[in-house]
Design goal:
Blueprint (H helix, E strand, L loop, with lengths): L2 H11 L4 H15 L4 H19 L8 H8 L3
Length: about 70
């Protein structure tokens, strides 16, 4: 799709009601979130490895409030 086509679609979308735009955004985002079994398998393996390392004392957990404080905007 070229920039002209995208601009045309955007212009038409902006004429929709807020609810219709929200439904359009939801449909577009849903289309990007297709299941990927290989990616899911790799993330599961990574999570298991991290949990095992934590249990062996090789890595430490960071309290949630510290993570949120570090990444929150003032």
């Amino acid at each position: 799709m070229n920039n002209t086509t995208a601009a045309t679609i955007e212009s038409q979308a902006l004429k929709l009601t807020p609810l219709a735009r929200l439904e359009l955004v939801d449909a577009i985002l849903s289309s990007l979130d297709e299941p990927n079994q290989e990616l899911d398998r790799l993330w599961s393996l990574e999570a298991e490895e991290r949990l095992t390392a934590y249990r062996r004392g090789e890595i430490k957990a960071i309290p949630l409030d510290e993570v949120l404080a570090k990444h929150s905007t003032p």
